[in-house]
Amino acid sequence: MRILVVDDDRHLNGIIKRGLTEETYAVDTAFDGEEAEYLACVNSYDLIILDIMMPKKDGIEVCQSLRGNHINTPILMLTAKDAVEDRVRGLDAGADDYLVKPFAFSELLARIRALLRRDGTAKTPELKVGDVVLNTRTREVWRGNRAIELTTKEYTVLEYFMRHPNVVVTRTMLEEHAWDYDFDSMSNLVDVYIRRLRRKIDEGEEVSLIQTVRGAGYRLKIS
Asked: Which of 27, 139, 185, 196 is most buried by a 10 A CB count?
């Protein structure tokens, strides 16, 4: 899943990016409101973490502009501890949730998980497709009774598939949601990770879940 982190405090921005990257998320960063709005308009994000107090354009203005342009990406607003009015304005502007600074990173992760599953049917940390179970909190993956060890990027790709079962997923969709802004779209990394996932998920199984849709992309197929 791909997240945009927006905060003009470069130290905090870097800490959040590093922590989220370690948790398997693909992360882009912005340091002012104008840059944030541009990136959110040209890229497809699964979540935006948006500070309110920023140069050029504050978080409230950015949020209002994105919602006005029908960009419905979940937005988690970062606010100061005593800025109750800002929190109210942020929610009224279209933000989905807020987090008060300073915050525990574990709470940030919990709020991210909650927002990412808000539009889906799953209300628990577990995603289940066929006999494959993925726990977004512990990052454990099982097929039946078999535990599957995945690298960070393999996990990210599988999670995207499991959030879109039976949907044809193109290479571009995977590039946009599993990799950050620096990804080289001319590389064959997507195909490499699909092959690795197939070996780990489907090898030795009677039913193959990851299918190639010729000329279109891939699909996590369940009956």
From this structure: 27
- The pLDDT, as a whole number, for residue 124 is 67
Q: Is the pLDDT at 115 greater than 60, yes or no?
A: yes
- pTM flag (> 0.90): no
Domain boundaries, the chain: 2-116, 126-220
- pLDDT greater than 80 at residue 123: no
Place of tokens 């066929």: 130
Exposure b/e, 165-187, CB count within 10 A at least 16 = b: beeebebebbbbbbbbeebeeee
Q: Which CATH architecture has domain 126-220?
A: Orthogonal Bundle (1.10)
No. of helices (H) and no. of strands (E), the chain: 8, 11
pLDDT grade for 19, boundaries at 50, 70 and 90: very high
